[in-house]
Amino acid sequence: MFTNSMPRYEILSPEAMATLDRGWRRIVSELGIEFAKPEAVEMFKAAGQRVDGEKVFFDPEFVLEQVAKAPSQFNIQARNHANDVIIGGDNMVFSSVYGPPFFRRGDVRREGSMDDFRDFAKLAQSFKAMDSVGGVVVEPGDAALDSRHLDMLFAAFTLTDKIVMGNVVSEINAKDTLAMGEIVFGGRAAIEETPFCINLINCNSPLRWDDRMLDSLMEYARAGQPVICTPFLLMGAMSPVSIPSALAQQIAEALTGIALAQLVRPGTPVVFGSFLSNIDMQSGSPQFGTPESGIGLLATGQIARHFKLPFRGGGGLNSSQVPDAQSAYESMMTMMPTFLSGTNFVMHTAGWLEGGLVSSIEKYVIDVQILESLQHEFTPIHFDDEALAFGAHEEVGHAGHFLGAMHTMERFRDCFYRPFLSSSDNFERWTRNGSKDTAVRAAEIAEKKIEEYEKPAMDSAMEQELLEYVNRRRTELGD
């Protein structure tokens, strides 16, 4: 977990905020939001909201009353409590890429596997800057569809001792996540007192929450586990092409999902989620790392703070097919505003490639390098008389150099951040060492990390109980 105490970069004027306020209020009250789950609709109806089939028309003041019940920050416990995190405030928590069906290493692009997932878990455990392996880091196509969530959760719990993300594909998967969490953390009361997982609930934008997402939202909310209510907005496809319109829609969708979580269990930890970018208006393909997505991040961070809610957004998003310059500069276009906006939970921090279709080993390492560099850049400088190093000036004098000065000799080992991936060799040395570009060096680092990985200690009886649960449920699910 990183503490970002730098000032926030706020781009919305009071007039802009007032315009957005009018916009989301009109959407929820005049257009309404669809909830494809009768139980959710009935809960809103019982709370005094007007309903028409699956559509709920909201009193905006009711929405704000529900949102106000959510905590502005909350804790999540890890198996190793040294890795516990706080979501909210100045805290930034980083998780891996989420959802790609394909995997890439070197020139090979193929369907993801369970072994690939395990390798990403090992990398997440090995890099201190990463707080979680995340959820579906890569879809393991070689694992049975109905039970692969069990395999991924078992790997996350046993190969890492950091926080985990729950599975949200179905209510059944959510219940399995909770049951496995109870085994690790000592029962239902223990996980309700301090959450152990955080869960991505995506809106089926525009203006519809589908049944599977709602099933998972309600299951996790009943157990007091945090839910990230995230509109999925690609301007030109799932929202209009204007940024103000997309922001107003985002507020309407996120707040109504949060309102439902508070109806299920008042005080449920929630995160105002944002996944906002645009499509290429020539090809219709999604684009990431665009100026518009950066603007959306800066604006949404300010909006989430306005509602006193933790904020999820950003990450190393890009549209490149390979871990090249495009993948890096587009990812930096997203990661810089991720920090400037004070994002609290960052999904897709590392490994995202090809518009989210591919999880890449090399890109994972490149992204961790970007992350570490930004964490260093956003660490405040300590100013005092000693830091002014006046004695070094006295020693070196005019027109001298500081390379051999006592001040330098005492501090050279750690005075500057040293990138683990970058090369600053001269051309001749670089050539002698194989003329390796960034992607090649990243692949070598990944392989070395995986080879040197040490599994974190876990009580053998607990691991056996987890394994027995996975095997029993696999049979019950027909796999």
Describe the protein in words.
- The chain is α/β, with parallel strands linked by helices.
- It has a domain at 2-9 and 67-377: Alpha-Beta Barrel (TIM Barrel), CATH 3.20.20.480.
- The protein has helices at residues 14-31, 38-46, 60-67, 114-126, 148-159, 171-185, 188-193, 211-222, 243-264, 291-306, 325-340, 361-377, 390-396, 406-411, 427-432, 438-452, 460-476; strands at residues 2-3, 33-35, 50-52, 55-57, 73-76, 85-88, 91-94, 102-105, 108-111, 164-165, 197-203, 208-209, 227-235, 270-273, 275-279, 286-287, 311-312, 345-346, 352-353, 358-360.
- The strands form 5 sheets. Strands 10, 11, 13, 14, 15, 16 and 17 form a 7-stranded mixed sheet that branches. A 4-stranded mixed sheet has the order 3-4-2-12.
- Helix 4 (114-126) runs parallel beside helix 5, helix 5 (148-159) runs parallel beside helix 6 (171-185) and helix 8 (211-222) crosses helix 9 (243-264).
Please specify the SSE layout and strand pairing.
Blueprint: E1 2-3, H1 14-31, E2 33-35, H2 38-46, E3 50-52, E4 55-57, H3 60-67, E5 73-76, E6 85-88, E7 91-94, E8 102-105, E9 108-111, H4 114-126, H5 148-159, E10 164-165, H6 171-185, H7 188-193, E11 197-203, E12 208-209, H8 211-222, E13 227-235, H9 243-264, E14 270-273, E15 275-279, E16 286-287, H10 291-306, E17 311-312, H11 325-340, E18 345-346, E19 352-353, E20 358-360, H12 361-377, H13 390-396, H14 406-411, H15 427-432, H16 438-452, H17 460-476
Helix pairs in contact: 1-9, 3-9, 4-5, 5-6, 5-17, 6-8, 6-17, 8-9, 10-11, 11-12, 12-16
